[in-house]
Amino acid sequence: MNRLKGQIVAIDHSSHMSLVDVAVGGDIFTATLLETPESADYLRVGSSVTLLFKETEVSLAKSLSGLISLRNRIAVAIRSIERGDILSAVELDYRGNTLKSVITTRAVERLQLTAGDQVEALIKANEIALMAGHHDH
Amino acid sequence: MIQVNVSKQLHGVNGEFQLDVSLEIAQGEFIALFGSSGVGKTTLLRCLAGLEQAEQGNIVVNGEVWLDSDARINLPPQQRHTGYMFQDYALFPNMTVRGNLEFALRKGADKKRVNELLELMDIGALQHRKPDTLSGGQKQRVALARALASEPSLLLLDEPFSALDAEIRARLHDEVLRLQRHFSITTILVSHDVSEVCKLANRVMVMEAGRIVQQGNPIDVFSAGQTSGKFRFTGEILAIEPMDIMFSLTVLVGNQIVRVVTMPDEAARLRLGERVMLVSKAFNPMVLKLGG
Amino acid sequence: MIIDWQPLILTFKLAAVTTAILLCIGVPFAWWLANTRIRLKPAVEALVSMPLVLPPSVLGFYLLLAFSPEYWFGAWLDREAGIRLAFSFEGLVVASVIFSFPFLVHPVQAAFQNLPRSLTDAARVLGKSSLQTFMHVLLPNIKPALMSGTVLGFAHTVGEFGVVLMIGGNLPNETRVASIAIYDEAEALNYAAANFYAGVLFFLSFIILLAVYMINRRAQK
């Protein structure tokens, strides 16, 4: 599980859903939640939260151009790649934090990813969960 | 409107504790008392029916005083006219189904009510049978019909569904809801089944060691938590196996076995037999309707 | 041989009267015993069971003392009501009721205790009085025990010997029941008559017990 610590900077919500912007370092992550400030106490601007998202939900892109609906795009550097028969785990450095992405080995080869490459990591807003406070595990 | 305020000393498995409950119930409400066994749910129900005596307190039902320990008023169960459904159904073995219902009628009540209930509960075909020849689900229907035959002002259900299998239970849940609305009768259900409570009750009171520790809309009460993932199950790890560069966890959730995929570092922190919570965002699960 | 039917008739008359009284007293008593929480319950239960273990002569001896007009209870009865229980049919009835009490009370008490408590609760919640609950819910559901208790009480009274001998003696038409007659005839070396009484008792007792077991077997199905 990837974890990043941040602070809520904005909340947009309807009666049952919220779009929560969380500042992590200099980037803003966005998470869609089926919760609202009325139903969940921790949804307050300024609250400390931990972003959670699964490794398999992190996509990687090289020299991506054009428009994309995806909200969360961050610049990362590849530290190492562990190749499996079908899947590969790519360890990423994001502003000093370690993130992992699990993509197909086929994709690693097609993108010709190697350690040291600068790439973009993409995470869909509805794949990010929030946990109140800062948790390491 | 029902106002209840009772206290009573209880002898539990873990020593003595005090049943201490106050609640207010509006006409027609469907309340669930939720909690593990031995927290005083059934005792509270029995105090309401008059089968057990609260040491202190008062019970007022639609303006009628059932219990007032200060004024030394304590109506016997015969005068309270509650509809009580027992865990073991307590059908009278010597009477037929119809006999059980007729026995329950109040003095001078119209016998048509028995026919109406036999029809409503779809047990007309069983009316001349003795309880011992009925299945669990059928007994349950008869017990419910009998509880309603006495025109109760309050329906008390003491874990009546716990001995039934899931399919019959679900059908009876529908039945209870239908009847509860048909007679718009105030109902209190004792249960330790979350799904049952969510389905039937419009308000749940969570009990712990004789006290109500939480109450509200069942879905709100049961889903209160910290993570924004809305989908969660707790289970026990049965197997941890490497799978390509990742690990597969086999987890027993309820009585279903599911598999989830994790990273090696996460798998390394887990042990067989450990309890874990599986969390998913509300967006992920795909929903397939069962049975066509 | 001229057969004197009197002892047999007397035996069954005694058993019938005794059983009727047993039912009237024993069933409510068994219900009370099944539900009471008094501290003396073990003592009461032990007293009720005494006839099971005591030699009939012990009980007979004390009853004889109690019934005798020489002592206070017998004297009081004689003075106030003109009743003399010693060496009379009435005395035999009283003794038989005491002596057969556990044979009725035990099975009936056990049956009451085995009835789910919820049956009583259900009847109370449905507005039924204690008497209605007892008559319509409790009694009908302990029929097999009631049946076997009745028959055991009856059969046991038929078979009584020691107590009768102690307090009844051997008065024709009054206290000379079949068991006494057998003893008496055998003593007089009148084996044919003894054999007749013994045979009738043997046969009837067997029929009664057979009927009970057959009814119980059907009830269990």
Describe the structure.
The complex is a heterotrimer of chains A (137), B (292) and C (221). Chain A has 137 residues and is mostly beta strands. Chain A has a single domain (2-132), classed as RNA polymerase II/Efflux pump adaptor protein, barrel-sandwich hybrid domain (OB fold (Dihydrolipoamide Acetyltransferase, E2P)), CATH 2.40.50.100. Helix content of chain A is 4%, strand content 54%. Chain A has one helix at 105-110, and strands at 2-13, 18-24, 27-33, 48-53, 58-61, 72-83, 87-94, 97-104, 118-123, 129-132. In chain A, the strands form 2 sheets. In chain A, strands 3-2-1-4-10 form a 5-stranded antiparallel beta sheet, with no helix packed on it. A 5-stranded antiparallel beta sheet of chain A has the order 5-9-6-7-8. The mean pLDDT of chain A is 90. Chain B has 292 residues and is α/β, with parallel strands linked by helices. Chain B folds into 2 domains: 2-223, Rossmann fold, CATH 3.40.50; 231-280, RNA polymerase II/Efflux pump adaptor protein, barrel-sandwich hybrid domain (OB fold (Dihydrolipoamide Acetyltransferase, E2P), Beta Barrel), CATH 2.40.50.100. In chain B, helix 3 (97-104) runs parallel beside helix 5 (136-149), helix 4 (112-120) runs antiparallel to helix 5 and helix 5 (136-149) packs parallel to helix 6. The model of chain B has no long low-confidence stretch (mean pLDDT 86). The model of chain C has no long low-confidence stretch (mean pLDDT 85). Chain C has a single domain (6-34, 85-220), classed as Orthogonal Bundle (MetI-like fold). The termini of chain C are far apart. The relative contact order of chain C is 0.15. Chain C has 11 helices and no strands. Classes of the chains: A mainly beta (137), B alpha/beta (292), C mainly alpha (221). The A-B interface holds A 1, 31-35, 39-40, 42, 52, 55-56, 82-89, 100, 102, 126-132, 137 and B 220, 226-230, 244-246, 261-263, 266, 269, 279, 281-284.
